[in-house]
Amino acid sequence: MWKLFKNAKLYCPNVSAETDVLIVGTSIAAIGKDLTLPDFVDGKVIDLQGKALVPGFIDAHVHICGGGGEAGPASRTPAIQLSQLSRAGTTTVVGCLGTDSISRSIAELLVKANALQEEGVSTYIYSGAYHVPMRTLLPSLEQDLVLISKVIGAGEIAISDHRSAQPQISQLQQLAAEARVGGMLGGKAGVVHIHLGEGKQGLKPIWTILEHTDIPITQFVPTHINRTPTLLDQGIQFLLAGGNIDLTAGCDDFSVDLRVPAVLRMLHERHLLNDRVTVTSDGNGSMPRYNDAGALIGMGVGSVEVLWRDIRTAVLEGLPLDVALPTITANVANILCLKNKGMIRVGYDADLVVLNNDLEVEAVWALGKCMVFDKQPQVWGTYEQSN
């Protein structure tokens, strides 16, 4: 079915004049003024009356098959449901494992990614989890990257965290080398998505690898970089050196200056908010709370809705929408080499989000299919209840 969006204030993610967008099947077929549907097609016209039309959000760190377990079996979080993603404006998701790679596996992660793809959103996964040596689906990371289409890198690999495997530099170095070669052979980004805790070393293990090998800095995507002031400072130095950094949304227990809206504004004011900065939700994972002695004192479940919530807050507080949007659209697609994602361009996938005048997610199309309209899901996951 053909769809024609009329009078859209287009963010591609850069802002452009009010225009029309034509969707044919799963792709964007035309962009321009005064577009019309041919008489011979079965189509629908949606007049956006000047509302913002933006690329579908890419959330590159979601525990799609569940996470947690740090407080025992009962603390394992459940698998995510389709409407949780679509309501949040997320049309592309990258699944990962975390602390638990014992009761959860790459096979389970891959099957859940395939299920979400069948239900309507685009999906990818990282091979591995917190621990090194890595647990992969095939005998090696290189094979996972070359032979499994949805695997785009390794992650989330934990360093500087009491829950990590305390990997040796040589192990991380070998992992990064495999990711690079596997990515090259498989035509993938082959990034190493690094989980950073509050440990003493911070980014030091990554700097050591960069100093002693020929692996480029862009092979790494460290996340949770806004966890502490020290880590954020290290992240800025990493960014200045040409590296990627990923901020975690929804960290309401952090001090205000470490939350995504404040960090994005700070980076923008310092002219550092470039195409190597991304934001992810860490959605559907456990949210353990520890005391100073490292003892678990509480547990929550992360929401994917915080991704847009934090970006929206940053915009409402003064950050231009076209400056904020790339951190969850074009920047992510570029760093992860996600073809035809992250922008509104002819030939790109028809992943689109309509924002109302209050910058709330009003409607969502994923691969040309209407997933949400008037804030209500139009497509439900296989085991979801529509009421």
Describe the structure in brief.
Its main location: cytoplasm. This protein is α/β, with parallel strands linked by helices and about 375 residues long.
Please give a handful of descriptors for the protein shown.
nine-stranded mixed sheet, 25% helix, alpha/beta, six-stranded parallel sheet, single chain, TIM Barrel, Urease, subunit C, domain 1, 10 helices, 387 residues, globular
The radius of gyration computed from the alpha-carbon positions, rounded to a whole number of angstroms, is 20 Å
Instruction: Count up the domains.
Output: 2
Please report the first level of CATH classification, the CATH class of the largest domain.
Alpha Beta
Q: Could you give the order of the helices and strands?
A: EEEEEEHEHEHEHEHEHEHEEEHHHEEEE
Rough shape?
Answer: globular
Structural class: alpha/beta
What would you say the CATH architecture of the largest domain is? Answer: Alpha-Beta Barrel
Strand content: 25-35%
**What is the CA-CA span between the terminal residues?**
27 Å
* CATH fold description of the largest domain: TIM Barrel
Low-confidence spans: none
> Helical element count?
10
Mean pLDDT: 94
The largest sheet, given as strand count, sense and whether it forms a barrel, is:
9 strands, mixed
Total number of strands: 19
CATH superfamily caption of the largest domain: Metal-dependent hydrolases
Fraction in helix: 25-40%
